[in-house]
Structures are given as structure tokens and as C-alpha cells.
Amino acid sequence: MVDRSNLDKNTIIMADRGYESYNVLAHIQEKGWKYIIIKMFIVNLQESKQKKFYPMWFRVVRFKITDDTYETVITNLDADAFSSEELKKLYHMRWGIETSFRELKYALGLISFHAKKVEYIIQEVFARLVMYNLCEMITLHVVVQQKPTKNEYQVNFTVAIHIYKKFFRDENVHPPEVEVLIRKNILPVREDRKNPRRIKFKKAGFNQDKRLEVYF
């Protein structure tokens, strides 16, 4: 995959655990790219029985992400240009991509397919990508009323996706009603969260003529 890419040398690859093999690092190095990969383990080359070795260099950087937890990455970025604090900022930039993949896989069902033929599977992938982008665009325009607490509030995007699905499947659901439902399901924004979030879904029913009742 690296060899087939047309990206130029001004590229920084950011990858999660599982990509830190020497083979991957060697191909990235041959491309002239830079990389930041979350470290899981590194095989000791001195124990290898191979007689020939491929020369490469990288540094292992460990930085604090909370009061009592650390993250370790491997990178070939120059230490003078990219300090541990700069690497930490780059590390956090990938989080939005991680959450997007999570929503695509689970909320939008990209983890499984209905089709068996390749061309139809590709069609399903693009359909979910279009749905995700549409949900993202609409959600950004939903005004969330802030509560008098220390935390700001944001839309529960996972619930919003299910509301959008209902909107596309039910011709009686209209856009203003969709926004009302979305505003009923919000979450506090807590930076540097340590404990997993417990989500409570609300029963969201409205319309006096009972045309729509959605339960979460």
C-alpha cells in the first residue's frame, strides 16, 4: 500500500498499534516519508538469525497524556524540530479520525456488508461515507442550548446517526423534527476524561398526531 501511494515526501504517517513492524517502517523510509506510530512492541534485532540487516533509525518518545498515564510512540521526525510536546499535539490530531472510523464501523454498520460482489460492497462503503458526511454537516448546524454547569454540551453523534436513518426511512419525518430530536440527546464535553462515559438514552417522542416516536 505504501509503495502504490502517490503522496510526495512532505508526508507524515500517523498509525495506531499493530503497524510498528520493521517491514512497514522500511517501506515508509524508502518513500522518504516521516511517521509517528503508537508503539506496542519492538522485536530485538540482535536476536535475529538473519545475516543481512536493513539500516534504519527512529526514536522512541514517551509523553504524559493524563496525570497517571503515558503514551509511547516511535518516530523518525527530527528531535530538534519536533519535541515531545509537538509529538503530543500531533498524536491528539488523529483522535477525530479514530472517532470517525468508530461511527462508520458501528453506528453506520460498516463492520458488515449485505452484498457479496466486490462492486456492490464498494457501493455500500460509499453509501455509508455519504451518510456520515451528511450527518456531520447537519449536526454542525444544530444549536445546542448550554446548561448552567461547568461543562459545555455537544450533540450525541451516535444517536444523531440513528435519527437520520429514521428520517430517510420515514416520509412523515420532517427536518425541523429531526433537529428537535437531536437536541434532546446531548453529552457534556469533558477534556482529559479518565473514566468511560456512561450514556443514557432518552425516550424522544413528539408530534401530537403521534406520527413519529423514536426510542433510544
UniProtKB/TrEMBL annotation:
Residues annotated as domain Transposase IS4-like: 8-134
GO molecular function, one term: transposase activity
Protein name: Transposase
GO terms (BP aspect): DNA transposition
InterPro entries, per database record: RNaseH-like_sf, Transposase_11
Pfam families referenced in this protein's UniProt entry, alphabetically: DDE_Tnp_1
